[in-house]
Amino acid sequence: MKKICCAAMLWLLTLAWLPSARALSITLDPRGGFQVAPGGTLLLDINIDGLRSGGLNTELGAFQFDLLFDPTLFQFVAGLPSAFGSGLGVVGDPGSALGFVDLVAPGQLHLAEVSLLDGATLRAMQGDAFLLGTLAFNVTMPPPPVPPDTIIVADDILLGDAAGDRILGLANVNPQVILQVDEPGTLAALALGLAAMAGVRRRGHGAAPRRIMAPWRPGAV
Predict the structure, then answer these.
(1) Distances 173 to 9, 25, 170, 199, 204 between C-alpha atoms, Å
(2) What total of structural domains would you count in the chain?
(3) Would the pTM of this model clear 0.70, i.e. be above it?
């Protein structure tokens, strides 16, 4: 009995030292926080994690999905800084990778990338997690009433390995991110406040200092 207890304790200690397995997941990660303002730019990183851990131990050879967003608030930037990551190869280089981005409908962006590299090369490049791509959006002024927040969702996700076999087991079938939208009234009030402060400072620097007390002269009563 004592030997069994010791063996059980040793097994538990071994499990404690093992790296925790992460389920396969895709995340939408905005740079600069979860707040957007009309007139600004949103940079959205799309990351994948868990290719090696959790028992999958595979590489990503292709992916495609639709990104759904509010077209009255976001306008996709087709050129840089929008770009695919380098985990599947360099899009545009011969024999490396092919990438496609298509605005199929207002508020629906279709992305697809296929690697032309072999599985061993992809495994050496990717690891367990890497960046699929970065999407840039101009934040526009939506028609009133301005929503307090907005949601961006990835839908119809398909993943495949280097051999073309489908990768199953995605933990979050519809990855999403919720962003807070700054109210135009708040931005206008802030701008007016800053302008007023600047005017006060300019007047303060340009005006001659006023005397609070008359200068004292010897013999003056």
Answers:
(1) 38, 8, 6, 53, 60
(2) 1
(3) yes
